[in-house]
User: What shape does this take?
Amino acid sequence: MHQQLRGIGVSPGVAFARTVLMRPDFPDVPDRTVRPEEVEGEVERLRAAVATVVAHLEELGRKVLDRAGEEESRIFDAQILMAQDEDFLASVEVLIRNNMLSAETAYEFKALELRAAWSASQSAHLRDRLADLHAIQLRMLNVLMGRPGHEIWSLPEDEQMIVVAHELSPGLTVQLDREHVVGLISEEGTRTSHAAILAHSLGIPTVMGVTGALAKIPEGTLVLIDGQAGAITVDPTPVELEEAKVQISRRHRLEFQLESVVALPAETPDGIRVSMMGNVDLPDEIEAAMRSGAEGVGLLRTEFLLTGRAALPTEAEQYSYFKRVSLAFPKSPVIIRSYDLGGDKFPAAFRMPQEANPFLGWRSIRVCLDQPEVFRTQLRAILRAAADRNVQLMLPLVTRVDEVSDTRALLAEERASLLRDGFKVAEHLRVGVMIETPAAVLIADKLAEVSDFFSVGTNDLTQYTLALDRGNARLAERFTPHHPAVVRQLAQVVAAAATRDLPASVCGEMASEPLSAVLLVGLGFRIFSIAPPSIPLVKWVIRSVPLSAARAAATAAMDARGPAEVDEALRDAVAPHVDLRLIDPHAALQARGRVVSLPTPPPPS
Ligand code: PEP
Ligand code: MG
Assistant: This one.
C-alpha cells in the first residue's frame, strides 16, 4: 500500500528495491505433530536445514574474511561446528521419531533444553558460547519455518534489496554486502551513530530514525529511499519511480563531474589550501580513500576490526594491517586511533560491564589505560608500523593531561622492549589528542603542551556539549554542531593549537557536510578527515567558496543565538558561489524532479 515515511537521512543517495526485514527475534514455533509416514521426511528436512545453515555460515565467513580479517571470520568456524554437533542433532532425531514431531518443534524443544542447561552452568566458557548457540538456533528455526529473507546473505546473488531493521549495529553493518544491499532503513539511530558512519563510508543510501518501520513496511515490498532527504516511499507509483531514476542519473552525473576535482587540490578560489584526508573504518575502504584522492588517513578507526570476532587481534595482525594502510599512502600521514571501545561499540572479544550510561562510562582511552596489556599490544604494533613510515597515534576521548603522559610512558617502555627484541621502531612517534569533550576544549592549552596535534571529533563534542545522545533518533533535530556552543569551542581549539603551532584537524562527521565544511574553513581549520565518498563534494565546495565568505559566515556563527541563525549565515555565504540544491538536504528536497547541473568552480587565483 502506497505510503510516505520520514526519517533522518544519514547516508545520501537514492535507491529502490524490495525490502528484507531483519527480525532478530525467535519465531513462534507451533507444536506440530506429523503422521508416521511423514517422520522420515522431517528428519531429512532437519538435515537439509543444517546443510543450508552451514552453507550460509561459510558464505558469511568468506565475506567477513575479505572485509575484516582472518580472526573475525573464525567466529563462524566455531558456529559451524556447533551447528553440526552430532550428539545434539541425534537427540532431535530421536524426538522427531519417538514423538512424531515436526522438525522445527523437535528442534525448538531440544534447543530450549540446551539453552537452559548452558545458562545454568557454572562454566564461564559455556555461558560465553550462548550467543553463538542463540545465533545458530535462530538460523535453523528460520530455515525450517521458511521465514522469508531473514538471512540477508542467503538471498540470490543477483538480487538487490533494502534492509529494514529495528537497529543497525556496527557488527551487522560491517557484514553488509554493498552490491546487493542498496539501501538501509532502521527505526533507531542517527547521523552520528556508529552504524550510520559505517553505512556512509560504505556509500549505502540510509535512512534512520523511522518510527515503526518494521510494522509499517511489509516484507518484499518495493521501497524507494532518499538517503539525503530522509524520505521513504513504500510501494511507489510509476511516476515516483521515474522521478527516482532521474535523480539517480543526476547523481551519477554529479559524481562524474566531481571526478574532475579528485586530482585537484582542495584550495579556495583565493588560494587557501585545505588538506583532505580520509576516514577509514574498514580495510576495504583503503581503496575507496585512495580513489577519492585522500591525502592520507586522518582517522583510522581500529575498533571495527574487533566487531564480531572472538579474540583480540594480535600485535602481528595489527602491525600487518597498519603496514598495509601506510603502504597505500606512502607519501602521506596515516593517523591510527587507539581503541575507542565502549559507548555503542562493544566487541564480543572484550568484556565490557553493563553500565547505566555507557557514553559517560568506561570508554576509549579510559579502557585502554585500565587494560594496559591490551593497550600495549596495540602501541607496539603502531611503534613498529611507524618505524619507516609516517604513522601517527591519536587518542580518543581525552579529558585529562595525564591520559596523554601515561600513554607516552607506556610508549617509552614498549619502545625500549621492542628495541631489546631487535625490532625496528619509530624514533619519535607523533601522538595527537582528539578533542571530543568540553573538558578537552577548556584545557586545550595544557593538552597542547603534551600533544603533537589535535583532531576534533565533532560527533562526540556535540554530544557532550549539548547533553544529547548522538544515537537517539528522537533528539536528531536538536543534534547539530551548528549550535553556537559548539562553534565557539571549535574556535577555541584553533586558537589553542595556534599558540604552539600544532596542526588541528576535524575528523567528525561535521567536516563531511558541505555547509559545515565552509564554516570550519572560516574558523581556521586547514585539515579535514572525512568519509571517502564525501571527499570530492566537499573539495568541490571548498574550491568554490572564497575564504572571505567562509570567514564572514564563521564570524556570524560565533555571534548567533542558535543553530538556525548559523544555518542562515552559512547559506547566505555559500549561495552566491554554489547551487545550494546540490549540497543542502532541505534545498535538495525542494528541487526534487528538477534537473540541476553542476557549475564549474572558478580556478584558484
Ligand atoms: C567523533 O566523535 O567525532 C569521532 C570522529 O569519533 P567517533 O565517531 O568514532 O566516536
Ligand atoms: Mg568520538
About this structure: The radius of gyration is 26 Å. Residues 396, 436, 457, 459-460 surround magnesium ion (ligand 2) (CB under 6 Å). The first strand starts at residue 3 and ends at 6.
